[in-house]
Amino acid sequence: MDATHTGPLTFNEIEPGGGLRAALGMTRAGIIAELNASGLKGRGGAGFPTAVKWNLAAAAQSDKKFVICNADEGEPGTFKDRVILSDFPDLVFDGMTIGGLAIGADLGIIYLRGEYRYLLPHLEEVRIRRWKAGWLGQNTLGREGFNFEIEIRQGSGAYVCGEETALIESIEGHRGESRNRPPFPVDTGYFGRPTIVNNVETLAWVACIMVRSGEWFRSIGTERSTGPKLLSVSGDCAQPGVFEFPLGVTVAELLREVGGEDAKAVQIGGASGHCLPRSEFGRKIAFEDISTGGSVIVFGPQRDMLEAAENFLEFFTEESCGQCTPCREGNPKLLEGVQMLKRGRCSAAYLRELCALGETMQLASRCGLGQSSPNAFLSIVKHFPHEIMGRSARDSHSS
Question: CB-side exposure of 343: number of CA atoms within 13 Å?
Fold first, then answer.
């Protein structure tokens, strides 16, 4: 899908550099207080309060601190960060620089997804332009003693590096594997120093908040899920693309906007998310209901949900780093079970065992990959049992 957006986006209305200039007129505490007033939570999917993360890193004692932009957009069905990096890179650079000012860091690193290598020249041009304009470097924008630089590092296409500690391992030159936590990156991050890791979209909203205020941001969305959210919509709909919605929008409202009213199911949150049937289209996309980093995949009436589950599990089997047993062994076993179902060779009793395995993986896996990889399988089994077991009984009889 082309990196295009559909409909108006708030980002179009924010002048590059505006957020940074506003922040440079504030104290460090004032910047964090404005973020706290906004209620901004991480837009990468985890939903951790941005102000809390920045405040912890600001309070940490160290001679070096770092800001990392997580641009490793590897979740299937998500492409909104690519649009931001293509069309609104200055907002991301602004957000990173504001983060550096707030926590006392002098270096920011953009960790760019391996498949987004074609964006590297574009981002380097933006970085150099900002440096020449004084928006980076010694005494950034005239702020005495604030010397902030940004580097761009390239990932190698590993899905697990979307997890912040695996991403840090990769930047340090190691194999991308998650770390034990605690300690957390805000205390012990890049080369053991305090580090904030924020998603591309999160950093862009930081710049907007500095321009428009935390009160403006909080006036959008719900009490627990404030602000707008960019959603990557793909699949069986008339208008795929990147849309901006207030958090709290229902799945039904989203489908009307994108021309997917006849959908049989919607996968919210990418391959690691949850599959909702038509009976649950009244649910809200929000941290208190159905949370997502940005992926919305629409399945039309003709789609085979078992094939969808197989596709997701093939992806996770391939992408598992193999560090922990539940994920390394569990995903191939779930994939094998789905293939048995497709052949009509899986009994109801064995299907229950597979579901129990998936629930164990959710609890026992080391990182978010293994904890979330069974989600789609479990939700498809829950919401489409007649389609799955009906096929099993029919195919067994015909064989």
Answer: 8
- The domain that holds 247 is classified in CATH as 3.10.20.600
In the predicted structure, residue 2 carries a pLDDT above the cut 70: no
User: What is the greatest pairwise CA distance in the chain?
Assistant: 78
Q: What letter represents residue 348's amino acid?
A: A
Q: Sign of the CA dihedral 165, 171, 177, 180?
A: negative
Domain boundary among 184, 218, 252: 218
**Shared domain check, 177 and 54:** yes
> Over the chain, what is the mean pLDDT?
93
Whether residue 2 is contained in a domain is answered as no
The pLDDT score that the predictor gives to residue 81 is 97
Q: Dihedral, CA atoms, 182, 186, 189, 195, nearest 10 degrees? A: 170
Interval 194-214: pLDDT, tens: 999 999 999 999 999 999 999
In terms of domains, do 343 and 268 share one?
Answer: no
64, pLDDT greater than 80: yes
pLDDT of res. 5: 67
Contact 71, 111 (CB under 8 A): yes
Q: Is 270 exposed, middle or buried (0-12, 13-18, 19+ CB in 10 A)?
A: buried
Residues 310 and 295 in one domain: no
pTM of the predicted structure, to 2 decimals? 0.93
In this structure, the answer to whether residues 33 and 106 fall within a common structural domain is yes
Q: Average pLDDT in the 338-359 region?
A: 93
Who contacts 386 (Cβ-Cβ below 8 Å, separation ≥6)?
none
232, 261 Cβ separation under 8 angstroms: no
Cα angle: 122, vertex 126, 131; to 5 degrees: 145
Same domain (yes/no): 346, 366: yes
CA distance 293 to 218: 19
The domain boundary residue, chosen from 299, 321, 337: 299
Confidence of residue 378 (pLDDT cuts 50, 70, 90): very high
Q: How many domains does the chain have?
A: 3
8-state DSSP, 284:
B
Beta bridge partners of 67: 108, 196
Residue 262 belongs to domain spanning: 228-299
Confidence band, pLDDT 50/70/90 cuts, at residue 394: very low
